[in-house]
Specification:
By secondary structure, the chain is mainly beta. Helices cover 10% and strands 62% of the residues. It has one domain: Beta Barrel (Porin), CATH 2.40.160. The longest helix is centred in the first third of the chain and has 9 residues.
Length: 230
Amino acid sequence: MFLLVLLAGSVGAQGYSAEVDLNSRYVWHGIALSSGAVVQPSLTTSLADLKITLWGNYDTNLSSNQFNEVDLYLTYAREFQGLGIEPTLQFYIYPNQGANNTGELALKLAYPLWILSAYTNQIIDVQHYGGSYFADIGLAYSTEVRPGLPLQAALYTGWGNTKFNETNLGFSKSAHNVVGADCCVTFYPLKGLYVRPHINYSRLVDTDLRAIVTFPPSILNVGVAVGGEF
């Protein structure tokens, strides 16, 4: 996968970007996948409208196999009459975890609404957990606190079908899973380098779902990402 990212960069790509994101917790679709801090490095390259990202997760609280997830994302982005369209093929690999690797097809649609942007993500597993489906809808806001200091925020809600909840939570019914909010601001201390502190709050919605999970139903995750282009 690493070679695939490098190959794309060598065939007329627009360059590479790299990032290291430190988070107080790994939270995915409202589900806590770690009990504490994680480090999440990524490497991205783009070729025309195609973007390839290699992403990993390092769990600082595990005693062994701390580098426990590697993902690959292939994203194609276009715009049609103001509608942003981004299909993505995403693969999840869990080295030395005894977990099943899998792949998903995702589609993101976004459309501007005055000062906001409405968006939705539709995600279906097409490999090991075929038919597992999760979707969210949200409103995003972007502005500049001052020139060169962008601020982004979003409110969203998501739901999973029975297969998704069985696979990830041991919960045998479809549900309105999560509501959440994100906010981040990006600083550029040096040319080509950025620092982005961010915060996310998520809460499980379904009462039965909150009753069976072993992690807190409300999670506040704080982190900071450092990255740049080269």
